[in-house]
Design goal:
single chain, about 190 residues, alpha/beta, five-stranded parallel β-sheet, two-stranded antiparallel ribbon, 9 helices, globular
Length: about 190
């Protein structure tokens, strides 16, 4: 089960193609996937009736949704505890880089130099995004003995992150994966 916002949804295709023998679903709303959230109430009610334990991947667009690390810690703590008490296995999933430009600028760039500069961000720029959530997610994973997967790694090197990979665009807009991007991250999540 992929549980979150559109950043859970964009993982679906790649994860399901990498795991064809598993029945993978996604439950999403444009909100934080916290137990107790009005938006997710029906979803949590449905999950509570599952006839067998599930693996539940929790994620969201942290940079735009999280107000503070404490709010994230409290919200995910409540959610993870609830899901574990039901017997489910929880996996916390990080997020991908958010860019200031659109993938169209990469596709129709006028030069290689422009293409590289428009379609990537420096490691330090991405580090400022990670400050919003990465340490808190790692702490939660340690506290609740769950797996944490930092999914940006296939998109980033030591120096920069890029929305391009193997001569193709991996994003559909400035913060969502397209089909090739979903396949890349789905493969990464499945290893």
């Amino acid at each position: 089960v992929l549980l979150g916002d559109s950043h859970a949804e964009h993982l679906f295709l790649g994860l399901s193609e990498e795991n064809p023998s598993k029945n993978i679903v996604f439950y999403i709303f444009g909100d934080k996937p916290y137990y107790g959230s009005q938006s997710f109430r029906e979803i949590f009610n449905f999950i509570s009736t599952a006839d067998s334990p599930k693996t539940i991947f929790l994620t969201m667009h942290y940079v735009s949704r999280v107000d503070s690390s404490e709010e994230l810690r409290v919200g995910f703590s409540r959610t993870i505890s609830y899901l574990q008490n039901l017997g489910h296995q929880v996996v916390i999933v990080g997020d991908i880089p958010r860019y200031e430009t659109s993938p169209e600028d990469c596709k129709y760039g006028q030069s290689i130099e422009r293409l590289v500069s428009y379609c990537s961000i420096s490691e330090s720029q991405f580090a400022s995004q990670l400050e919003v959530y990465e340490e808190t997610l790692q702490d939660l994973a340690n506290e609740y003995h769950v797996r944490f997967i930092s999914v940006h790694e296939p998109l980033c090197s030591a120096d920069y992150c890029s929305m391009l990979g193997d001569n193709e665009i991996l994003y559909r807009d400035n913060n969502h994966l397209n089909i090739p991007g979903s396949r890349l991250i789905g493969k990464y999540l499945s290893t």
